Amino acid sequence: MGKPFGLYVHIPFCSKLCHYCDFAKTANFNADHQKSYIESLIKQLSVWYSVIPDSRQFTSVFFGGGTPGLLTSEYTELMTLIGQRAVHDVEVTLEANPSNVTAEACEVWRSLGFNRLSVGVQSFDESGLKALTRDHSSSEAFSALQKAANTFPLSNGDLIYGWPGQTTDSWLSDLSRMVDSGVNHLSLYALTYEGQTPFARAQRRGVMQAVEDDRLAIYYDMACDFLRKAGFEHEEISNWSRPGASCRHNWLYWRGDEYIGIGAGAHGFVADGSNVGLRYSYPGDLRAFLRNEIQNSVSPKMKDIVLSTGGIVDSERNLESWLLEYVGCGLRCRDGIDINLITEKGYRLRESEVFRRGLRDGMLRMQNDRIYLSENEWFRETAWSLAVADCFVVSSI
Ligand code: SF4
């Protein structure tokens, strides 16, 4: 496999909107909207192809949403275009909801080149599904996961914890059903109350209350324990996989590798000859996207820079924000952070008292020029990443 390079494709259509969801999405669409949207994605990707050298081949592709599983053969042309710039063993993931996962749909997705299916389950508890305003049943979710596990070489399932009314028994039962389904990768997320979602508004009105952090920590510890015994490896705060079933696309994010994002609300990160590269995003406004106002937003200036230097200079991101992001991502996954990578960018390590105490108490570990945070502290990664990033000072000081 060459140097990791990813593609994220955002598909914003959902048959029903879940009240906790803060992603760019719409339930108000028809087949014409879907067709125009895919055409816009094709144009947008073609613009990127004109600035990225042919030698940069995708090692992983991720169709996220929204609900990419609402579409099947509509992806044919887009997948052909993607295939022109992909390594032979590219990992191609499609996110789907349980009601999308039929035998026929799986067959079409496989024939188009998708080799990993990620099913959004969130809970197997009927009261949990109701609390989370999901539009599928527990048995539908289990059967979708089984189909995913039987049809795709790699399969993921997602669960949410911390929903109103959840009990530890219900959480253990969710974990157990997930393991029994046969999927080889799990993502577990604490429920959050974000932005303008109905859940966040209800929380502001005092109608809903977030579960306390201590309780979330109990659910997290239960998951760590249960999944370790079930043979899963804990790769990152929210992600576990069976040996050999890591999600390549996730690692690309966690290690700070490059990826293009296309579609409404998509984010991307492209490096340049400098230290930190460019992070960018597209507006989540689907109407603007459908009016074809988005696909040329890769400005000529950026194109010129890419063509002349082989990269794109980041005018917004600085070395300090890179450091915080790199340390934050690295400390909450099993790879930790690479001290040499940071010192190459002009920093040196000056251990603080908090850092030394962390080493002494076994929360931090330094080994082979890397720093690791112990698994049971990943849940408190934010405080640790600030403390560790503070220990890297610019060399000239
Ligand atoms: S959680 Fe998934 S299905 Fe629900 S609204 Fe968000 S993107 Fe759509």
What this model shows, in words?
With 397 residues, the protein is α/β, with parallel strands linked by helices. The protein folds into 2 domains: 5-252, TIM Barrel, CATH 3.20.20; 319-394, no CATH class. 39% of the residues lie in helices and 21% in strands. The strands form 4 sheets. A 9-stranded mixed β-sheet has the order 7-8-6-5-4-3-2-1-9, sandwiched between helices. A 3-stranded antiparallel β-sheet has the order 12-15-14. Helix 12 (319-331) crosses helix 15 (381-390). The two termini are 40 Å apart.
List the helices and strands and how they pair.
Blueprint: E1 5-11, H1 31-51, E2 58-65, H2 76-83, E3 86-96, H3 103-112, E4 116-122, H4 126-131, H5 138-151, E5 154-161, H6 168-181, E6 185-190, H7 198-204, H8 213-229, E7 233-236, E8 239-241, H9 248-254, E9 258-262, E10 267-270, E11 278-281, H10 286-290, H11 300-309, H12 319-331, E12 337-338, H13 339-344, E13 347-349, H14 353-360, E14 364-367, E15 370-373, H15 381-390, E16 392-394
Parallel strand pairs: 1-2, 1-9, 2-3, 3-4, 4-5, 5-6
Antiparallel strand pairs: 6-8, 7-8, 10-11, 12-15, 13-16, 14-15
Helix pairs in contact: 1-2, 6-8, 12-15
Bound molecules: iron/sulfur cluster (SF4).
